[in-house]
Amino acid sequence: MQFISYQRIDIDNSWILFLKDVFSLLTIFYVTAYVIIPRWFIPGKFLLCMLWLLFIYAWWSFLSYFGALLTLKYLTPDIRLASYLEIVQSNGIFGAFRLSSLSDYLLDFIFLVALPFTVKIVQAFMSVKNSKTKLELKNAALELNNVQLELAFLKYQINPHFLLNTLYSIYVLVSDRDERGGESMMRLSSIMVYLLHESNQPKVDISREFQLLKDYVELEKLRYSETVQINLNLAADDENCMMVPLIFFPFVENAFKHGPRLSSSAGWISIDIKVKDHEVHLNVSNAYRELSKPENYIGGLGIENVRKRLELHYPHHHILEIKSDEGVFTVNLVVTLLPEEQP
Question: Residue 189's CB: how many other CB atoms inside 10 A?
């Protein structure tokens, strides 16, 4: 378009002005398209964009002035082109900023950059819109995945053997008119109420999580009596802290599920959870003996679900370490509570 317009003025000598416009447009367009628009325009830094517009307008006007000088000095342009170039020369290097000639310069500048800039800006906005749509779809997929993990976790969070054995132990206590029978029934009811109703909340008080573990451990003691040494230590500098529910429970249940039953020596379980300075420190360890797994064995679902829930709820805010060494299985977890979870 620029070349055709200059050809109408002077067929033989307008090429230098055409090269000037091509060079100025290339430098202006590519810097604007791949630096200014993504870094300033899209993020809304419009003051910087205005300064950039002023700069490229000045850059184009300076090139126009020197292009006019070179054409008049080294070529013999047609009278129509020469008269135009003489006007540019007479306006001087800052002619594009003079009020008397500002409108003419601006029209030429807008004619040069409007079309490519418009195309690129529309493309940039469409790209941002597509990126936001992809991000929303990704977040929706994460939310769906989160729900699926929660459902899977609830499905496997209680060992059926625990329920069966606990109910049998309570039955024996009730049959013997042992006072612990009623207390144990209340503990089991408290656990079931929490798992079925309260744990559906996004966040729960740390104190409620602690109560769940206390009830669970007391019921497990009915099964193992004095044969298994069980140490439980729960402490929090402020129990009003909140946390995603059922993060601790699978590790504790796993210790009871595998520790006493598989240990070749006297069974023992140690559970230590502390909340201090908005950090949760969990250490669960138990006696452990590696046994061969039966064919088609499916296990570790509870622990794997906890891993995924930690990644979803506390990305970059937790450290989980699980190891077995010399007959001891240990879980260490550190979680930094999020700001909205802190009292």
Answer: 11
Q: Which residue has the tokens 């006297």?
A: 266
Length of the chain: 343
In terms of DSSP bridges, do strands 242-243 and 204-205 run parallel, antiparallel, or are they unpaired? Answer: antiparallel
Given a cut of 70, is residue 149 above it in pLDDT? no
- Residue 271's pLDDT is 95
**pTM for this model (two decimals):** 0.55
The encoded tokens of residue 114 equal 């409007």
Measured CA to CA, the distance from residue 239 to residue 255 in angstroms comes to 24
For the segment 102-124, the average pLDDT, to the nearest whole number, is 81
CB 260 within 8 A of CB 269: yes
Q: Exposed, middle or buried, 237 (CB in 10 Å: 0-12/13-18/19+)?
A: exposed
Contact 237, 277 (CB under 8 A): yes
Radius of gyration of the chain from its Cα atoms, rounded to whole angstroms:
38
